[in-house]
């Protein structure tokens, strides 16, 4: 019995020793793993491996899941398309750069437009021989659309229907406003009776383009066209029935530009502000009266005479920080896109102007947007903008120049593609 009693404490002691040993090993193992984990976070080789992994992932085609009702369609974004859209992914000039990038790629793959072929070719759209002047945006748009992959000959595949009328061309032929209204009304009514597509949506999936204010007058005789269809116009005035969530503001671009694009030249811009033009609106009269004799603002109450020198007016944009853009007979002005092209920060001086591509790009990042009443404090407002803020605005301005340029043929993210993107956003309202 004594031998058995002696063995029990020895067994208990051995068991305790074994437990302590196991616990010690566990603790040492945990400490070792923790040390190795912390070391791996600082390890250049592992960091490089992580970089390599990200690089490999970025080289793979991106799978985008597109949903359309109950059906889903999967598309692969090619490397070329990725490169074209990379420049918008992180730019702060866009409200939602990633959303814009993905939706833009979806538009390129899926958007289809049916162009009505009916109509008198002498009156309706055809590509002009020369794409020049303030209202050449109409001609550029139609030429770009005609030559693009967006057009479909199958109306059942179309997302939108283009009504190819050119009020500017009608005006050039000497047709009166009254007769223009009759022509447009008769033409659209013929489309209604001949095709079923207008009647399915009362025209909500139809659009037309006009950059001349004559287009507003010529379409007044058909209220359903104005209220229901998408109007792509250069005069987005609310007092003529412009509806921001339905209609599209078309940039008024005076092409071809007389001189190359400006930008990355802030050291050359020593004049505070510049404007020269006709006093064909109240705000322009006030601008000239208040500031034409100022020593820091270069304000002229008439267009610069060509006799003073070759392209003197355009060259003023190159040496000016802020170019004043007051509304003329309409809220819009081609001077805005002139300013953007020449690298001069546009100062929008107009009430109720739905700026082009306003739901895509943030105008406050590359321009100064003011109300007409601010004209009396114009100089003080501009002088409060620091050099650092000016440089930031200028750099952002260079980023958006491509969006305000017509090309033939069109190129990615130019004015044509931006207008098509605006239409793409609106085509989801009604889908058949």
Automatic annotation (TrEMBL):
Q: Which InterPro entries match?
A: Exostosin, Exostosin_GT47
UniProt subcellular location: Golgi apparatus membrane
User: Membrane-spanning residues where?
Assistant: 21-38
Where on the tree of life does the source sit, at the highest rank? Eukaryota
- Domain Exostosin GT47 spans what residues? 108-385
- List, alphabetically, the GO terms of the cellular component aspect: Golgi membrane
Q: What is this protein called?
A: Exostosin family protein
Source organism of this protein record: Perilla frutescens var. hirtella
């Amino acid at each position: 019995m004594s031998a058995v009693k002696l063995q029990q404490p020895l067994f208990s002691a051995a068991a305790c020793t074994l437990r302590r040993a196991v616990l010690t090993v566990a603790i040492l193992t945990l400490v070792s793993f923790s040390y190795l984990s912390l070391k791996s976070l600082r390890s250049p080789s592992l960091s490089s491996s992580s970089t390599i992994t990200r690089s490999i992932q970025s080289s793979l085609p991106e799978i985008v899941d597109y949903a359309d009702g109950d059906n889903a369609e999967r598309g692969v974004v090619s490397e070329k398309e990725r490169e074209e859209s990379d420049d918008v992914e992180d730019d702060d000039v866009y409200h939602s750069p990633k959303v814009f990038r993905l939706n833009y790629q979806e538009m390129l793959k899926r958007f289809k437009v049916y162009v009505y072929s009916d109509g008198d070719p002498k009156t309706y759209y055809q590509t002009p021989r020369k794409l020049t002047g303030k209202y050449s945006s109409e001609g550029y748009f139609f030429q770009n659309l005609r030559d693009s992959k967006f057009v479909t000959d199958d109306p059942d595949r179309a997302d939108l229907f283009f009504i190819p009328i050119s009020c500017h061309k009608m005006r050039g032929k000497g047709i009166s406003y009254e007769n223009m209204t009759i022509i447009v009304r008769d033409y659209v009514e013929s489309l209604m009776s001949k095709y079923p597509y207008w009647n399915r949506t009362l025209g909500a999936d139809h659009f037309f383009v006009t950059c001349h204010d004559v287009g507003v007058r010529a379409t007044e005789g058909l209220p359903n066209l104005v209220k229901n269809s998408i109007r792509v116009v250069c005069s987005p005035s609310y007092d003529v029935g412009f509806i921001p969530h339905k209609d599209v503001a078309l940039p008024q671009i005076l092409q071809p530009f007389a001189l190359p694009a400006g930008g990355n030249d802030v050291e050359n811009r020593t004049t505070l502000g510049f404007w020269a033009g006709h006093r064909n609106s109240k705000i322009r009269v006030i601008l000239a009266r208040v500031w034409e004799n100022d020593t820091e603002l270069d304000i002229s109450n008439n267009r610069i005479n060509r006799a003073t020198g070759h392209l003197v007016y355009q060259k003023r944009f190159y040496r000016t920080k802020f170019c004043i853009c007051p509304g003329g007979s309409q809220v819009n002005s081609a001077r805005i896109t002139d300013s953007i092209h020449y690298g001069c920060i546009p100062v929008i001086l107009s009430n109720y102007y739905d700026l082009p591509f306003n739901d895509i790009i943030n105008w406050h990042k590359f321009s100064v947007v003011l109300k007409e009443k601010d004209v009396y404090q114009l100089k003080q407002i501009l002088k409060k903008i620091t050099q650092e803020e000016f440089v930031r605005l200028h750099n952002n301005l260079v980023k958006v120049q491509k969006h305000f340029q017509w090309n033939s043929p069109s190129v990615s993210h130019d004015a044509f593609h931006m207008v098509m993107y605006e239409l793409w956003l609106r085509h989801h309202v009604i889908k058949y």
